[in-house]
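FORM 12-B: Structure-to-Sequence Request
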């Protein structure tokens, strides 16, 4: 069975041609799906303005990925905005999905370094300041940073090199496919949560209740297997 791969692409320019090319090149190796968000869409503008509304962007991302297990997220650094760039998008992504693997691309890679360094000029940056900038990028879960015209080939390379999904990945994927379903039984502390909310809790490692629930699920599954094999 082909592995399932879902990616999220965020750009200020339509990426349909790239997505079509990805589909053609990956159709033999995996079940590929791309979710695309164009930041210049009118629906993402601030009311009565030409500026990108970050809150609307976050809600759009949240809505589109709520029932999906995202393997990779890609974002352009340059989004044709005066005060919003790819780093802001990455911060939204890591807030929504803590362990999401991210690729950033740009036609001007020096701009990213300058953005991370802040007010410090690259030529004047100390070793400590550069190390701190690298740490920031690591915290953002940016797996790779490539030129704009190279991101398609880099994504294909990473997908083909990536291991088969783990049981953990498959579990999260199944929960997200039923993200709106309310949890009503089996484990009282999580009663009333949606399966999507539980998936978020597992991914963010934000609540020990999900660890207890997962352990109980394993115990019940083993008990069932033992029973039907008696």
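FORM 12-B RESPONSE
SEQUENCE OUT:
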């Amino acid at each position: 069975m082909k592995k399932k791969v879902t990616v999220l692409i965020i750009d200020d320019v339509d990426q349909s041609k790239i997505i079509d090319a990805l589909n053609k090149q990956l159709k033999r190796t995996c079940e590929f799906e791309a979710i695309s968000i164009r930041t210049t869409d009118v629906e993402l503008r601030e009311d009565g303005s030409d500026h990108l509304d970050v809150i609307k962007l976050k809600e759009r991302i949240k809505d589109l990925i709520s029932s999906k297990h995202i393997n990779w997220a890609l974002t352009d650094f340059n989004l044709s905005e005066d005060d919003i760039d790819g780093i802001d998008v990455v911060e939204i992504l890591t807030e929504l999905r803590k362990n999401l693997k991210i690729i950033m691309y740009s036609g001007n890679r020096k701009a990213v370094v300058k953005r991370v360094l802040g007010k410090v000029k690259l030529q004047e940056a100390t070793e400590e300041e550069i190390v701190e900038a690298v740490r920031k990028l690591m915290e953002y879960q940016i797996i790779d940073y490539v030129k704009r015209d190279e991101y398609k080939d880099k994504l294909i390379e990473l997908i083909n090199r990536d291991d088969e999904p783990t049981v953990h990945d498959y579990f999260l994927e199944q929960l997200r496919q039923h993200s709106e379903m309310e949890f009503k039984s089996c484990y009282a502390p999580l009663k009333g949560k949606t399966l999507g909310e539980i998936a978020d809790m597992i991914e963010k490692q934000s609540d020990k209740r999900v660890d207890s629930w997962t352990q109980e699920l394993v115990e019940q599954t083993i008990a069932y297997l033992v029973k039907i094999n008696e």
